[in-house]
Design brief:
By secondary structure, the chain is an alpha/beta fold. 27% of the residues lie in helices and 27% in strands. Bound molecules: flavin-adenine dinucleotide. Flavin-adenine dinucleotide binds next to helix 1, strand 11, helix 4, strand 15 and strand 19.
Amino acid sequence: MQIMDPIFCYQVPVVIGAGISGAAIAMLTPNVVVYDKGRSYGGRVSSKQGTNQATFDFGATMFRDPMEVRWLGREIKYSIVEIWKSQSVSLQTKPIYSESHFYPPLGMANLVSAMLGNVKPIQSHTLKRMERTDGNTWNLEFHNSATKQTDTICTHSVILTLPIPQILEIFQRSTENHYLKLWSEFLENYNDYRKTLVSYFYWDQWKPDWKALYLDPEAKIPITTNLEPGTDWEYQSWESLKYPREFHSGSALLVQFGALFSETHFDNWMDEKKNPNPNDKGYLIQSLKEIFNAPEPNLIWNHRWKYAQAQMPLLGREGPLDLDSEAFEEWKHLCKETGITVLGDWLFGPKIERIVGGIYFLSHNDLL
Ligand SMILES: Cc1cc2nc3c(=O)[nH]c(=O)nc-3n(C[C@H](O)[C@H](O)[C@H](O)COP(=O)(O)OP(=O)(O)OC[C@H]3O[C@@H](n4cnc5c(N)ncnc54)[C@H](O)[C@@H]3O)c2cc1C
């Protein structure tokens, strides 16, 4: 294996991943450097603009507020919106679906950009491997997809916010090391993710019959989504109702397909330009007709999330984040001993409020 030769040594923690976890860290500790492999930040909280420049969210679609933490036998409630206010994060949010659900009218990715604030992530940098030096620091080797070159830096503190399979790949590529082995063994217990396929449909001259779909765009808190757990077309979000300004005569729908459908259709779901393969295209158009009485859409854009949501979070999936467990004590010990902190939805659960509230709580109680 080639020896790493860092061009630079940071005196501040280096965060890998500019998703909601990385952004929450940057909000609370702006004195960090953030690297991300993508061309833009957001990770699984990502928004895009379709053909008519209308925004749609193809990862998370909304968040809940408040959230709760259980620590030292007490349960404490936190409002995410209040956390943002206390950190001077400038972010507009609107209620949607119910009184406890919200979204930003500028698109979900706005959550990430607002929390990043002045911290500008270094994009297009994929962490490939890491190595412990004699001076108790970590060398980090990145592939820069813009220049096709290798950049190596070093730091005394690494914060990883990637899904576990991507972390384990980096560890496997790295020089053998006792600390990486300890982390690998620990993380294996939580390494379970579901896949999710999504499709975005856009019609420039057609809207469904909202009433027939039990949706109410005129309600004070608009209901814009349908959830049918366990079915193929599991979650339907009418993005044109969420972002109505861009739509006059048309409409747009984002569908998140169920776990079984996503698993079985994953490999052939789309081509490089994110067009559906011809078989699936026929199926999608036929289903749109059957379910919504919809004509063929003007646009179909597909995406696939390989590690969509962690299934067995260490701090629990529902209810308060449980910090009173032995596993959490072990996590704290590993972070301290190794100079590597591993965060993300495998720890808090795949919910924006749990991640933001959880990172806030850990940071404010010196647990991070
Ligand atoms: C389809 C879908 C719908 C969802 N709906 C909701 C919802 O409505 N409400 C809700 O609360 N939650 C929802 N979730 C869950 C939520 O989106 C995630 O739990 C959350 O976004 C995870 O954030 P993260 O920052 O921990 O990880 P990520 O968003 O995955 O961020 C990790 C970042 O690391 C980068 N990265 C990966 N590998 C490397 C590498 N080697 N080097 C450098 N960078 C790397 C990635 O580019 C990414 O930006 C949904 C998720 C999906 C997929």
